[in-house]
Amino acid sequence: MSPRGGAGPLRIGVDLGGTKIEAIALDPQGRELLRRRVPTPRDDYEATLAAIEGLVRSMEGELGTTGSVGVGMPGALSPATGLVKNANSVWLNGRPLDRDLSQRLRRPVRFANDANCFALSEATDGAAAGATCVFGVIVGTGTGGGVVVRGRVLTGPNAVAGEWGHNPLPWPRPEEWPGPACYCGKTGCIETFLSGPGMAADHERVYGARLEPAEIAARAAEGEPACRATVERYEERMARALASVVNVLDPDVIVLGGGLSNLVGLYERVPALWQRWAFSDRVDTPLVPPKHGDSSGVRGAAWLWPL
Ligand SMILES: [Zn+2]
Predict the structure, then answer these.
(1) Residue 198: which residues within 8 A CB-CB, separation 6 or more?
(2) Where does residue 80 rank: exposed (0-12), middle (13-18), buried (19+ CB within 10 A)?
(3) What's the CA-to-centroid distance between 195 and ligand 1, angstroms?
(4) Among 88, 146, 200, 208, which is least packed, fewest CB within 10 Å?
């Protein structure tokens, strides 16, 4: 009997992160067969390629078969040049990652932005399984987003579909404008308010105390007024930001991921607020936590090769 437990294609997903590279092997039913991780060779492109190749080859050796390979990456491959752009792992930018990795592995490799992989994972067999149109949000170190329609990642001619984090925070209050500077060169981006560092910076601007988001959330849960107010500002800003997504895309489900998706109040509070800004008499969009949690990035990368 095959060590992967049945006939059908093996899918390997790779999550190329800034600090670790994680790989997973899935059977056709989406069951995890193997998982491996190695530290990312920072600032070394060739070593990054070799690390991915090594992970894939060792997993295939262990399973006794070869599979399809999908890679979730920061940034995107430019449709115009085929080169990496927008990656915060900056040593990847300007490199032909697709061509180089496909050559090393001697097969076509599919790539998608890590937030797109998250959305694909949750749309395929996660919290949004079966939904026609899914907007997946990652609120963590940054603020990413991805759109999946009928089980396929929507990329777009500029490969930025879903990147709501670098739109301005909508309906800004006077104290929110022009807003904090963003690494993208603009000010007042949604990311500067809704990312983890954005929440911490907001708390510090208002109260002068430097706290991590998890600490703010814990103190808010205990009823500390300043932390509660920070969480409430965060919820209200997320409601505004997602109302603008509803107005453009009207997805069937919105799934949150990343560290801040652990703020349990979001799933009740944000839908109670967003109707004020959505162009609709009512908003019935479910806002849900992820089913696969931190595994969604690597699972979604495997699902880049569809059924
Ligand atoms: Zn920005």
Answers:
(1) 143, 180, 191, 192
(2) exposed
(3) 11
(4) 208
Cα(186) to centroid(ligand 1), Å: 6
- Tell me the CA–centroid distance for residue 138 and ligand 1, in Å: 15
- Its pTM stands at 0.94
Distance 75 CA to ligand 1 centre (A): 13
Given a contact cutoff of 8 angstroms between Cβ atoms, the answer to whether 295 and 25 are in contact is: no
Reading the block at residue 198, the tokens are: 């954005």
> What's the 55 CA to ligand 1 centre distance in angstroms?
33
Please give the chain's pLDDT, 307 residues, in tens.
334 444 468 999 999 998 899 999 999 999 999 999 999 999 999 999 999 999 999 999 999 999 999 999 989 999 999 999 988 888 999 999 999 999 999 999 999 999 999 999 999 999 999 999 999 999 998 999 999 999 999 999 999 999 999 999 999 999 999 999 998 899 999 999 999 999 999 999 999 999 999 999 999 999 999 999 999 999 999 999 999 999 999 999 999 999 999 999 999 999 999 999 999 999 999 999 999 998 999 999 999 998 6
CA of residue 142 to ligand 1 center, whole Å: 10
| CA 3 to centroid of ligand 1, rounded, Å | 46
Please tell me the distance between residue 164's alpha carbon and the centre of ligand 1 in angstroms: 9
Is 196:140 a contact under the CB 8 Å cutoff?
yes
Copy the structure tokens of residue 103: 């050559």
Cα–Cα distance between 304 and 72 in angstroms, integer? Answer: 9
Using the mean position of ligand 1's atoms as its centre, give its distance from the Cα of residue 67 in Å. 37
- Distance, CA of 55 to CA of 61 (rounded, Å): 10
* CA 15 / ligand 1 centre spacing (Å): 23
